[in-house]
Write a structure and sequence with these properties.
- The protein has four helices and three strands; from the N terminus they run E-H-E-H-E-H-H.
- The chain is α/β, with parallel strands linked by helices.
- The chain has a three-stranded parallel sheet with strand order 1-2-3, with helices on both faces.
- The radius of gyration is 14 Å and the shape is globular.
Amino acid sequence: MCMVAYYAVLHASAPQFSAATQLTEANGPVPPLLIARAGRDLPQLNEGIGYFVAQALKQNGALDLMTHPAGQHGFDSRDDDDRTRDILRRTVEFIRGHLGAE
């Protein structure tokens, strides 16, 4: 099991909709996480990602965080550049590594 999130809403003011809240209240180990963020995304979205990352690290979760500094929301389909391709390649490797796909 693993989790991949690209420019996702990971922290919300309503606890029932907050992945960060669910993470801190979960019993058991945190699954391996890969999170990608877009540097040019909404500040509130990136702040929520930062909060989620901090919570995952407090729980000593295995976490890969990748930032596309010049990327916009939807960079994986909108920004055809080397950083996007690197993030996509590393995401596939992450998934294959954790789900056993060859």
